[in-house]
Amino acid sequence: MRRMTTIYRILIILCLAILLACQKNEPLRIGFVGGLTGKVADLGVAGRNGAQLAVEQRNAAGGVNGRQVELVVGDDEQNPETAKRVVGELINQNIELIIGPMTSSVAMAVMPQISESKSILLSPTVTATDLYGKDDSFLRIAGTTAGYAGKSAHFQYAKLGIRTAAVIYDSNNKAYSESWLDNFRTAFSALGGKIVLVKSFPSGKENVFLPMAKELLAAKADSVLIITNSVDAALICQQFRKLAPGQHIAMAEWASTERFQELAGTAAEGVVVSHFFDRNDTSQRFKDFMTSYRARFNQDPGFAGLAGYDAALVALEAFAIQSKGQSIKETIITKKSFQGVQGPLNIDRFGDSDRKSFVSVIKGSQYITGE
Q1: CA dihedral over 85, 88, 89, 90, signed as positive or negative
Q2: Which pTM value belongs to this model?
């Protein structure tokens, strides 16, 4: 009997050892959700690529505590209803951390189901202030629209002498665009500026921008502010340049992907944009990132590629240092500061970031950082 008991103990120990070994060999699964199809898929594709690059580099270096990492990707099609389904699928796979979404409207749509789950969102690019200062399951590595809009307002007023502005914005992503507009209005008005006209349009439809461009130009504002995606921003800029070549144009960071310049062509010349991606960075870390991204995807990353990469770096480091019994959100909040490609990423107790921002002017197809 005693011998049989010893054998049973040995068998139990062996089973536990095998179970632990199997668990260690299982990949660490991290989710990603972003718009990968449709006319404005450039944002989501770049974000996905950046996250994938970070995962591949980590796996090549041994993974996370000996485990390989798998990025489970979902396409939200930049559609709130599709996003709910995709996020639900990731939650059902018990994925604890989802990188994304890439736009504010999608983040707002999926937050109720995220809040009811054990998963969290870590967004590379969502900036809407509706999600600011809340102890919830939403974290981000980008600042809020208040920072970008305020910086744009100050630069235009103080550096360019802009005193009046007309605005056109995308109502299909109003969680972002209306937040950006409200923050710009507050900062611009405080300086002494005035918004003289506001027009909106739904980006999901086929829009004819010529009549809107004529109406905005008729307001005779010093500057026209565009708050929309890269494709529509390029089309709007082309109309302005045809009608009034010397018109000053500014746009929100959402449009400042690499595709904007490709589509806008010479119409992009002189456009002012506030964003967090310093294309003129000379640091070795940035050079290495650009070299790796170009070699892997045969294109430049833009701000979305950088943001996706940085978000994945935060996620991977958090999983590497996560203590037993500690949630991944608690790990990130406790760690507070992470190293990004272009500097530290500081995340506060609400999961909000104070990422450094810049103002650039497009000159000769290059974003030249102004301040």
Answers
A1: positive
A2: 0.90
What phi, psi does 30 have (nearest 5°)? -120, 135
The amino acid at 367: Y
d(Cα 360, Cα 371) in Å, to the nearest integer?
A: 7
User: Measuring CA to CA, how many Å separate 48 from each of 114, 235, 304, 312?
Assistant: 20, 25, 9, 10
- Measured from the Cβ of residue 194, the count of other Cβ atoms closer than 10 Å reads 12
Class of residue 147 by CB neighbours under 10 A (exposed 0-12, middle 13-18, buried 19+) = buried
Q: What is the pLDDT of residues 163-205, one digit of tens each?
A: 999 999 999 999 999 999 999 999 999 999 999 999 999 987 7
% of the chain exceeding 90 in pLDDT:
86
In the chain, the domains with their CATH numbers are 22-143+282-346 (3.40.50.2300), 146-275 (3.40.50.2300)
- How far apart (Å, rounded) are the C-alpha atoms in residues 166 and 217? 8
48 Cβ contact list (under 8 Å, min separation 6): 32, 34, 36, 73, 308
